[in-house]
Design the sequence.
């Protein structure tokens, strides 16, 4: 079986994390920002899977299941809040939501 | 699980059971007073249950939990602060329309998350605790869903806190991949025999620092703080400033001392930089604020900057100074936000400094409470804040952290300016706005806060002895 070195696997997870962060910074729509955050969470989960495989332990995979459930809750609350934002501001553009700021 | 395991987890079981019972009660009979009374009782029960755990500690439930004196001390502080916040929320929420009983359910889940952080000895519990805490906070911040500002604060906190959690998680993953364990105590043993820390590990700690810096609102990760404090309901702001930050600090101190972060040059420099930046940015930005909630937010950034100095002392005495500082900071912050929440009405949040003009001539006692809280935050003698700062500076000097101590002293002077500005405005000539009447419960809570500030300021010896005896890592 072809084996990929751990460093490459971590690099892959790192690139994924970075892509998520770029998405977060570039996108101005709240739904897309939430999706970018999901990508960042999942790349972190990937690191745990890689580590679990590397050390032959189940711990990392247990952690991944916890991450999955927490992100599910996060998205549920996030979408509920986004609905409220649309209700109040009639837009999902983050640049339009700026009532709170330094005077 | 054995009987001892259940006994040592009893505060968490109570905190987890209470919201479920409240949910059932609400579905049968919705009554604000009943829910409030039950919440107070449950928190008191959780505090009392700690007394029964004392004989069985230190008790470790491998691999996740470690119940020792340090964690019990932090849980007690967290629970008492949560109780004070519940007292201050009573009047604030009572005047709101619509659904408000659910507030207490969410407050319980977030307190559960916060107290889990105090016993965390493993990355899984660290992550779950921090997420239970912040996920509940999203809802609490956006609780006043008729107000634009509340929703805006909620969504801002949601986006930034999730990003910080992702950073935290990635950092944990990198540390796990280097050492093959997520348990703090195992990491400590693995690190002890190394001359030089692996690069991947330092990278992981760095990413965790980003996540923790967000939660503690340290510069340069402080952007969310003033907006969220301003938009959130006043009792929730006090909750974020105290319980949330205290709990994150509890787990961070334990983790940092386990990995001996203060021995590593690069981590040392990064933390010193963050501390100095937090002090200066927090205090300098607070000067021009016209909104008292934003002012307190910037002051909390500066206070957290003072506090993380002790991470670098690397001594038990430093931890004790930090705990004393946290206790006084909790009391004063809850007092200051308590005044704001008691003076707020359904239509108007009492957040502009202009609204406090002449408060002393209209409500002398409330103004005196606010004065003591602000003086304590500024660190004036005979208030608790002075002793706390003195203790912190003393431990910092013992460890030879001269640059940090000097910048802390300079910043105390800058801080004095903006705290005194609020106080002078309270004592100047009154204007004609009407203030709501304050309930007995609110008065009792504020009286308790003020007396604690004075007692700790005049006679702090007993608390310091208590901390030295019980709060050892």
Sequence:
């Amino acid at each position: 079986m072809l084996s990929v070195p751990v460093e490459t696997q971590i690099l892959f997870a790192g690139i994924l994390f970075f892509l998520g962060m770029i998405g977060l910074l570039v996108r101005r729509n709240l739904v897309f920002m939430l999706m970018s955050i999901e990508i960042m969470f999942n790349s972190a989960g990937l690191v745990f899977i890689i580590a679990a495989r590397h050390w032959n332990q189940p711990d990392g995979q247990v952690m991944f299941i916890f991450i999955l459930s927490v992100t599910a809750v996060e998205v549920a609350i996030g979408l509920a809040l986004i609905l409220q934002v649309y209700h109040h501001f009639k837009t999902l553009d983050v640049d339009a939501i700026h009532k709170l700021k330094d005077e | 699980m054995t009987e001892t395991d259940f006994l040592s987890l009893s505060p968490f079981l109570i905190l987890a059971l209470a919201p479920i019972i409240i949910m059932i009660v609400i579905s049968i009979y919705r009554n604000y007073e009943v829910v409030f009374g039950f919440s107070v009782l449950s928190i008191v029960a959780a505090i009392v249950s700690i007394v029964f755990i004392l004989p069985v500690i230190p008790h470790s439930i491998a691999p996740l939990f470690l119940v020792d004196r340090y964690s019990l001390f932090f849980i007690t502080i967290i629970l008492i602060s949560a109780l004070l916040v519940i007292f201050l929320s009573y009047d604030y929420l009572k005047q709101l329309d619509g659904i408000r009983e659910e507030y207490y359910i969410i407050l319980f889940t977030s307190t559960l998350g916060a107290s889990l952080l105090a016993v965390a000895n493993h990355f899984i519990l660290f992550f779950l605790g921090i997420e239970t805490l912040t996920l509940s906070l999203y809802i609490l911040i956006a609780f006043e869903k008729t107000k634009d500002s509340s929703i805006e604060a909620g969504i801002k906190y949601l986006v930034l806190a999730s990003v910080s959690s992702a950073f935290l998680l990635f950092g944990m993953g990198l540390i796990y991949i280097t050492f093959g364990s997520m348990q703090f105590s195992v990491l400590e043993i693995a690190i002890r025999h190394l001359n030089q820390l692996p690069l991947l590990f330092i990278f992981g700690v760095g990413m965790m620092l980003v996540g923790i810096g967000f939660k503690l609102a340290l510069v340069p990760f402080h952007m969310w703080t003033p907006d969220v404090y301003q938009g959130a309901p006043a009792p929730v702001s006090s909750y974020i400033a105290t319980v949330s930050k205290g709990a994150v600090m509890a787990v961070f101190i334990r983790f940092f001392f386990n990995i001996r972060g203060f021995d590593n040059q690069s981590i040392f420099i990064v933390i010193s930089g963050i501390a100095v930046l937090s002090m200066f940015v927090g205090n300098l930005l607070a000067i021009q604020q016209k909104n008292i909630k934003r002012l307190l937010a910037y002051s909390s950034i500066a206070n957290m900057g003072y506090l993380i100095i002790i991470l670098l002392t690397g001594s038990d005495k430093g931890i004790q100074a930090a705990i004393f500082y946290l206790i006084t900071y909790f009391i004063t912050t809850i007092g200051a936000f308590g005044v704001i929440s008691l003076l707020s009405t359904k239509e108007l949040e009492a957040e502009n400094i202009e609204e406090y003009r002449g408060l002393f001539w209209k409500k002398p006692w409330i103004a005196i409470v606010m004065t003591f809280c602000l003086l304590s935050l500024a660190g004036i003698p005979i208030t608790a804040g002075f002793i706390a700062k003195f203790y912190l500076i003393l431990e910092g000097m013992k460890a030879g952290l001269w640059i940090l101590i000097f910048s802390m002293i300079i910043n105390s002077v800058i801080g004095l300016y903006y705290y005194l500005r609020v106080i002078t405005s309270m004592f100047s000539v009154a204007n004609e706005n009407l203030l709501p009447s304050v309930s007995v419960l609110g008065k009792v809570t504020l009286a308790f806060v003020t007396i604690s500030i004075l007692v700790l300021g005049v006679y702090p010896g007993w608390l310091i002895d208590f901390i030295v005896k019980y709060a050892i890592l």
Notes: Chain A is about 75% helix and 0% strand.
